[in-house]
TrEMBL record:
Keywords: Hydrolase, Metal-binding, Nuclease, Nucleus
Organism: Arabis alpina
InterPro entries found in the cross-reference section: HARBI1-like, HARBI1_dom
Main location: nucleus
Basic and acidic residues: compositionally biased ranges: 378-387
Cofactor annotation: a divalent metal cation
Name of this protein: DDE Tnp4 domain-containing protein
Family: Belongs to the HARBI1 family.
Lineage of the species this protein comes from: Eukaryota, Viridiplantae, Streptophyta, Embryophyta, Tracheophyta
Any Pfam family matching the protein: DDE_Tnp_4
Domain DDE Tnp4: 204-341
A GO term for molecular function: nuclease activity
UniProt keyword Cell membrane, yes or no: no
Amino acid sequence: MVAGAGNSSLIGKSIKRKPNKLPLKDPLLHRLTSAASVTSSFLKTNDLFLPPSQSLRLESLLSSLPIPPSPSSSTTTWFNRFVTSAVEDNDPRWNLYFRMSKPTFFNLLSILDFSSLPSSSFAAAIFRLAHNASYKSLLLRFEFDSVHDASRAFFTVCKLINEKLGQVNDLKPDYSPRLLPNCCGVLGFGRFEVQGKVIGSKGSVIVQALVDSNGRFVDISSGWPSTMKLEAIFRQTKLFLESESFLEGDMCKLGNGMLVGRYVLGDSCLPLLPWLVTRYDSNEDDDKCREFNNVVETALRSVEVVFDKVRAKWRILDKKWKLETMEFLPFVVTTGCLLHNFLVDSGDDYHSEEECVNGAGDAEMRNDEEDEEEEEEETRRSEGEVDIGSRRIRDAIAENLSRMSSIMMN
């Protein structure tokens, strides 16, 4: 009896001690639960109108709390509710969420011929490209049973975009035709960063691109490591290896009587060729050379602007990619460039307010290369004399530019 009474007393004491600890946690837990409930309610009420950057941030915050999410009262997915809500063709939310108008969205969907996947899978892939949305966030918005299904749908859509939109159109000599007759575009480079130092201290994947006068990508070569020199990249691309067939066309007679074939502009770190016209070296400092170099510099900046637009519109490219996913980066970059072309052709190439605020630039790429430029120039010169015919072509183009500029000024 005594032992029993003693045990009963101990148990009673232990029961009394537990509540002493709980009040320390209960207020915090209560406040977290209350805040999560308010945030979740706000998100569910406004999810069709919030900018994706805000809604994704709130979703991430809620998922990080040690509180089970409240069950959704809706029986339909966010995308289905959005389509039902955004019925007007000019509803700005289509551009906000999918970077294109409603007519363009469904036009692209029809071109891709989604016979094996629902439209929600296409929408999920475009949403992920546009906002760097995680696969987990796609589960909350679209009809997926698992992260694996969302990932598979994303890469299926990217593959279809590459297949259906990847055909290169005929290259036309329309880049500033009066000043630069027979010029077909500008050859430049973009850089997309990768975490770690496996491919250099500023590790990144380099993309070579030929851009036309409309700001479209005419040729894309993606996936080159930043440890390679730009000229070495150039000499291994399909554009270089098949340049004769790619740039074949009528010759153009300049004002001085010289005939020139189709050509593109490029930076001085690349070789001067009959079809690749680069800047003059800095030691050539007459008015004609300076004017020509200024035109080339402006053209090269236009390539940077196009890459900036791709980054701003497809935010999945505006991040440092993890090393283990680096192999997919060139594929996704090409997808973004092809979508950019499609939007230019559709007349949907404009930026929403969110893009303008959140977009990042690629202009630092040229600054990163400045230290290497002199070395690249020395390497190029050490490989042998530049073809005399290429020099004559550049001189003739520069002289024609100077003459036409004077005529236009007068």
